[in-house]
UniProtKB/TrEMBL annotation:
Protein name: Histidinol-phosphate aminotransferase
Entries under Gene3D superfamilies matching the protein: Aspartate Aminotransferase, domain 1 (3.90.1150.10), Type I PLP-dependent aspartate aminotransferase-like (Major domain) (3.40.640.10)
Residue list for modification N6-(pyridoxal phosphate)lysine: 214
Cofactor(s) the protein requires to work: pyridoxal 5'-phosphate
Catalytic class of the enzyme: transferase
Tagged with keyword Nucleus: no
Length: 366
């Protein structure tokens, strides 16, 4: 029998696989804890029922889901693709429009990490043009690049800022006929007035990413959407797997996108927005918090004296938040997802204790 060792298997892997640093998701990088406020999930979880048997393959693009989302987003069904989360939408766009070792994408850090990782795994170069003051696009820097895709996250993760609409329009104008401009609206339900979906008719190279993971409270479902011109959607359909959406996923997604499901989501958003403002008001009173970013999503970015120590201290209280200090353009920052009322009360008590203790230690050492 042949000697099959891990070393031998590793030698078979592509070089890009050996070199790639994978995305460190909140769930994979942290474990334990009783209060999870590190992954921008919706703690106000809805409940759904499944019906039927599952011995048949599902539709590649379930009609009920496509039509429901098209109606919700006010676009035509031909402009909608459903995928395994918005992450698959990112991957499909890069695989469909970027030639490996030839093309590039442009991203604007600090921002969502999967744009770069998906590009690198497809041997596509990444142009990084940092945001100005972590909130506005560096238009001159972006215009100096020659990408196939430009990714703009708004509301931006992890800062929570809305990218000014006029700046996104300027990017669309500049790259007409040159590149696709991809606006990631994963958190748009928390700031619906900022959507660019109503510009799809004006800009055929505009692509919008959406998800059910955040406001709809269905992160475990892994169901996302790409909104774009039919020509873009048809290109993505050539690259997508034959059965990307499992039948149980399709059933629950259709329920979530019903009139009752959308109303439930909107009530959830109202509750989260109220808890968000309460937490921001609390954070602004804490002497150990040096900056509180304004947020248009279900999370808040905070600058503290020692991010690693703050995260570690809260872990001892069974509370998980996320250290985002490794992001380009950021230093000593933590991101706090907004949980339910009880979780936020527990977090504020633990934070108040931590910053009070830290302040006392500093006074003693001085």
């Amino acid at each position: 029998m042949a000697n099959s060792t891990p070393t031998g298997v590793n030698n078979l892997a592509r070089q890009i696989v050996k070199d790639l640093v994978p995305y460190a998701s909140a769930r994979s990088s942290m474990s334990g804890g009783a209060v999870w406020l590190n992954a921008n999930e919706n703690a106000l979880a809805p409940s759904y029922q499944l019906d039927g048997t599952f011995n048949r393959y599902p539709s590649c693009q379930p009609k009920a889901v496509i039509e429901s989302y098209a109606a919700y987003a006010d676009v035509s069904p031909e402009q909608v693709l459903v995928s395994r989360g918005a992450d698959e939408g990112i991957e499909l766009l890069i695989r469909s429009f970027c030639e490996p070792k030839q093309d590039s994408i442009t991203i604007c850090p600090p921002t969502y990490g999967m744009y770069a990782i998906s590009a690198e795994s497809n041997q596509t170069a990444v142009n990084k043009v940092l945001l100005i003051n972590n909130e506005q696009l560096d238009l001159a820097g972006i215009f100096a690049t020659s990408p196939k895709l430009v990714f703009i996250c708004s509301p931006n993760n992890p800062t929570g800022d809305l990218i000014p609409r006029e700046q996104i329009i300027a990017v669309l104008e500049h790259f007409a006929g040159k590149a696709l401009v991809v606006v990631d609206e994963a958190y748009i339900e928390f700031a619906p007035q900022a959507t660019l979906a109503n510009e799809l008719a004006n800009y055929p190279h505009l692509v919008i990413l959406r998800t059910l993971s955040k406001a709809f409270g269905l992160a475990g479902l892994r169901c996302g959407f790409t909104l774009a011109a039919p020509e873009v959607i048809n290109a993505l359909k050539k690259m997508i797997a034959p059965y990307p959406i499992a039948e149980p996923v399709a059933q629950i997604a259709a329920q979530a996108l019903s009139q009752a499901g959308i109303a439930q989501m909107q009530q959830s958003v109202a509750t989260i927005n109220a808890l968000l403002q309460q937490f921001i008001a609390f954070a602004e009173t804490q002497s150990g918090i040096n900056k509180v970013w304004p947020s248009n999503a279900n999370y808040v970015l905070l600058q503290v004296d020692n991010a690693a120590d703050c995260v570690s201290s809260l872990i001892k209280s069974d509370i998980l938040i996320r250290n985002q200090s490794s992001q380009l353009g950021l230093s000593e920052v933590v991101r706090v997802s907004i949980g339910n009322a009880d979780e936020m009360q527990r977090l504020m008590q633990a934070m108040q204790q931590y910053f009070s203790n830290t302040d006392s230690k500093e006074r003693v050492s001085a």
